[in-house]
Design brief:
276 residues; alpha+beta; Aminoglycoside 3'-phosphotransferase, Chain: A, domain 2; 45% helix; globular; Fructo-/Ketosamine-3-kinase; ATP binding; Kinase-like_dom_sf; transferase; kinase
Length: 276
């Protein structure tokens, strides 16, 4: 959403080219700090390339995030497969730490700081229960819609849908994965040498399937991406219904960002989840 929310510029420096985004929103520094900490968390795994994070700055009127500038271009099909593998390995990284390095294992869902999906902040308070954590994320979006829209039809449908959420997780065990948080195809590119890159992250520790929700909303990822991903993390029973549940967050979030154009899609997903 750089361009809709923030403006970016490239600068030469004594440590190489830097990419600087600026934002004039009141809480721009909160958004950028969440992005910086997200990129740091992904970088620390050593699994997938990200722009090297440097610093967040602010003055009286605006905030800035400074990071490494990378020459990137759209992914080719071969890189989609590689990226699918890398994303799956990223999702398994924390889970594997439970056995290989328990002191570094993150056992709860959430994140150590607030992050933003777009300009809107996400509640990332630590929670041992994924269903409770994710339901609160959806409720936060619905609360915003209620304030801005006062849409009784959607509110009633949400209450019915909300009661069905626990059923979608019957029979599966969920452990916290480090997830990108906004993994649509516009936030993934490749370098000239073919190395996949992800950026504009809004991380938290959550169910790995969550990242695939927005990935399927706008297209852009080839089947080789999904095939490679599921070779490492196979689909579990109920995947398709949960996929709709995870898309619901992003439809509601886009509704809160861009307006009523996402109302119909939000209602359709809630009806599907409620009636199934």
């Amino acid at each position: 959403l750089c361009g809709f929310i923030s403006q970016g510029s490239v600068f030469d420096s004594n440590i190489g080219k830097l990419f600087v985004k600026k934002n004039e929103k009141v809480k721009g520094s909160v958004m950028f700090n969440g992005e910086l900490e997200s990129i740091k968390a992904i970088e620390k795994t050593g699994i997938v390339r990200v722009p090297r994070p440097i610093k967040v700055l602010e003055d009286l009127t605006q905030a800035y995030i400074v990071m490494e500038f990378l020459e990137m271009k759209s992914m080719y099909s071969a890189q989609f497969a590689k990226f699918g593998t890398q994303l799956a390995k990223l999702h398994l990284h924390n889970i594997e730490l439970e056995k290989t390095d328990p002191s570094k294992y993150v056992s709860k869902f959430g994140f150590h700081c607030q992050t933003c999906c777009g300009i809107l902040p996400q509640k990332n308070e630590w929670n041992p229960d994924w269903i409770s954590f994710y339901t609160s994320k959806l409720q936060e979006q619905m609360d915003r819609i209620k304030v801005e829209q006062d849409d009784e039809e959607v509110e009633e449908l949400w209450l019915k849908c909300k009661d069905k959420i626990p059923n979608l997780f019957a029979g599966i065990t969920i452990k916290p994965s480090l997830i990108h948080g906004d993994m649509w195809s516009g936030n993934a590119k490749q370098l000239d040498d073919g190395t996949p890159v992800m950026y504009d992250a809004a991380c938290f520790y959550g169910h790995h399937e969550y990242d695939l929700g927005i990935a399927g909303m706008f297209g852009g990822f080839s089947m080789s991406f999904y095939d490679s991903y599921h070779e490492i993390i196979p689909k579990e029973p109920g995947f398709e219904k949960r996929h709709s549940l995870y898309q619901l967050f992003h439809y509601l979030n886009h509704w809160n960002h861009f307006g009523d154009g996402y109302r119909h899609g939000s209602i359709s997903l809630m009806e599907k989840l409620y009636k199934d």
